[in-house]
Each structure stands twice: as C-alpha cells, then as structure tokens.
Amino acid sequence: MQTRLKKGLPNIFMILLGAFLLLVIPYQISDIQISTMSPRFFPYFLSALIVIISIGTLLSELKTAKSGEEDTEFQNEKPSYTRVVIILLGLIAWLCLVPLLGFILTTLLLTMGMMLLIGNRRLLQVLTVPFIFTLLIYYVFKMIMNVPLPEGLFY
Fold first, then answer.
1. Minimal CB count within 10 Å: which of 8, 94, 115, 122?
2. Do residues 130 and 112 touch, judged by C-beta distance below 8 A?
C-alpha cells in the first residue's frame, strides 16, 4: 500500500499543480486579442497537458499495482549519464548553430542525432521522422502562429 502511494504521489502532485495553473492563468495573463491566438493559449494548453498526462500515468500505475507486476527491467541497471551529457551538448550545439545554419537544417540534424543516440537504427525512420517533425514545427510556428524562426545560410 505504501509503495503504491509513493509511486502515485508525484502524479497527484502534478495533477494538482496543473489544476492550480488552470485556475490562476486568467488572473495572471490578460486576454488581449491582437492575433488569432490569445496569450493564454500556450499556458492553458500546457497546463491541460500536464493534467491529462498525469492522470494517464496515475491510472497506469494503479493498474500495474493491482495486477502485481513490478518493473524489474530497470532495477538492476546502473544509471549512466553519458547519454544525458551528450544530449545536453547536442542542445548547446543546436543553440549555437541555429543562427548559422538556420532552424530547419539544425533541427533536422539534432533530431536525427537524438534518434541515433537513443538506439533507433531503422534507416527509414531516422530519415523520415526528423523531416516530418521539423516541418510540423516550422508549419505551426511560421504559418499558424506567425512566429519567425531563425534563418541561417541555408534557410
């Protein structure tokens, strides 16, 4: 019983935090309709996402606890921080290279590198997923929200 409570406590905390943020947003961010999207859109979206994901994770934890399954897959592994350091260095390199190479090319390279780093070796996925991901982000920010993205030597 205590183990189940310990596993569910972070999710309960995140649900409460998300609900608190949803209640506080109208008092903290004024609703000025300058463009098609209100300044409240992203805070509402992210707060709702926090609540939804936390509820899903909590339900998953409860289901796993009821069935008696244990996560023994990661219990015996020693934590390795090399991937974390490589990801951090990759993000720093991305920040430095975006003004030079532009958003599209730099994001494509970063996403491909991250996919290879986490162990994806399927060539079709490594080539298509970063392309779709980058174009989706570009389309949402540039075309829908009219947010300019950095352009470099190669667009």
1. 122
2. yes
